[in-house]
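Methods — Computational structure assignment.
A single polypeptide chain was analysed. Its primary sequence is given first, followed by the predicted tertiary structure written as structure tokens.
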Amino acid sequence: MGSECKYDIRQNAYIKLVLHALKHKTSSVNGILVGRLLGDNLVEISDSIPLSHTQIPLLPTLEIALLQVEEYFKSEGLGVVGYYHANERYDDSDLGNVSKKIGDQISRYFPQAAILLLDNKKLEALQKGNDTSPAVQLYTKDASKSWRQAGADSSSQLSLKEPSANVVLLDYISTEKGKEIVDFDDHLDDISKDWLNADIFK
């Protein structure tokens, strides 16, 4: 089950979800994690798709987004492997019920699903150069099918695929590249905007 899994998050997936949260600091933001299961207990998170910054997505919007994401990545052998969320308030570090329900929905199709919750304190420490671990908290399902946060040793369960990811992230933050991030909300308002954010890393 998810609690036995390890999770590797690729640099671009990690940077994109943090930049999405930083672009909308006064809103809750969320998105979808895309990847694959490697072997029995390693989930590689290879991309993140920013979903919303205005509100927790309504079920029809979420389902449309999930279908589009699944369809797009299917040819690459990738699928939806989790969900990410950043709370509206800086000091709110709890995983809300709506996030858990969205995670439940995803885990019906991918039992090893993870939820990543942006950790503002870790992000602040990272920006001060005091931390090199991922600026997110990992949640997985335990044996009783409840979402639980990985313990203090979560770094043994969640790791950055590229060790330099935080250095690159800080560069993106300093150059304000995150302002270019497009989420599904933006795309629905203007379909010319690319929800894949293909140009961000060029």
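Note: Residues 59-74 form the longest helix (16 residues).
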